[in-house]
Write a structure and sequence with these properties.
Number of helices: 24
Order of helices and strands: HHHHHHHHHHHHHHHHHHHHHHHH
Distance between the termini: 23 Å
Radius of gyration: 21 Å
Strand content: under 5%
Shape: globular
CATH architecture of one domain: Alpha Horseshoe
CATH topology of one domain: Serine Threonine Protein Phosphatase 5, Tetratricopeptide repeat
Largest sheet: none
CATH class of one domain: Mainly Alpha
CATH superfamily of one domain: Tetratricopeptide repeat domain
Length: 460
Amino acid sequence: MYGLKVKLTLIVALAALALAGNAGLRWWAARFPARRTPASAGLPDAQANEQALLFFAARVRRAPDDHVAQNKLAGCYLQRVRETGSQDDLALAFRATHASLQSVPSVRNLSALTALTLEEQASHAFAQARDHAIELSQLEPDRTTPYQLLGDAFLELGEYDKAEAAFKKMAALGGVGGVEGVETETRFARLALLHGDTTTAERRLRTALAFARNLNPPPRETVAWCHWQLGETAFSTGDYAQAEEQYRDALAVFPDHTPSLASLGRVRAARGDGNDAIAWYEQAVRRLPDNIAFVGALGDLYHLAGNEKAAQARYARVEEIGWPDKNSGAVFDRPLALFYADHDLHAAEAYANAARVYKDRPDIVGADIVAWTAFKAGKIAAAQKAIKAALRLGTRDARLFYHAGLIALAAGDEKTAQTYLQRALALSPRFDPLQAAVAQRALEAGKVAVSESPGNVSPL
């Protein structure tokens, strides 16, 4: 579950949109590819996008009312956002799209309306994205795209039945194979994972990968993304060797695929090579220095390696990243709340922020974060209620089971606690370098303190 979004921060939303609208951004690139000028023809994807961005930026400076050029420019910025997670580029994409819509209204400018929906997803404004996707579906009822975007928004809002209905409509309108096949298969794979069906999820992802490879030319980022998702699925079931193979396959296709860099660090840690894990996470953080999940994980690895100075520097960096958005409901709120709960920091604040965000985005990831932060804040009844909501789909996720186990233990239900902790460690015994150790000790001792700081956690 958490792997699917590297769940999360903006990249996750964009390497995933999350982890979430990631595939929608790939759709944007497929439907509105950056026009290759003679200077960009034959260049690798990222370089070609940069050339196209410069081309269209110059064009809109000469003709700011050229809505087609503004749409193309927005597409280039969205491509860059997907690759870098840059909120500055996201703001520039919004600016280009709004300029386009000022020139030509949405009813006659569906490309801009589509871009706006993608931008709203990337900024975690999922309710607005849903409303604009509904508008698109009314304007283009026979196209797959509106239902794809609508389903993505419903997923993030925790309206899973509506998401599935939208994706089924998308599948009925689309063809078999090609770009539409990739998009359809990846979405049904995510639904399968949410419902605990990893076998179907893997089959769907392998089908998507085959479709992507058969495109001419195969889009490197899309192929890498499919490998990465297969790796995340394998990691979630404790198949660390297969997970590592998939991450390395992703990087062989697309060496700058940042989620795979970070995930390779995570799996190397799970396989006992902490120094190699640090090296991979360092690469990921160099590319995405504002990713809370990556920076926090790197701090944990330094802590376990005994380099407390480096660990504290990364933890301080997490605070710097999250500080501007602590009270805004923006993209860093949930990952920051999770970081706080994992590290026994600002428990009351983390719970308040998680609960506030959950009101507008009641998905199972949000419910789990509310449950975990409530547990750390000593609000056991609230934690029990939230963890029940988080488990409602039957998702098989070690971190989710771990949280459920400790919450049950705090509530005095030792039998249920033992069941969930056993399930967590059986499913993925090294799901997290710090938290898996806590789970193991809790299972052995039959109890755990509500607050246990990383400083008291020894490596597995």
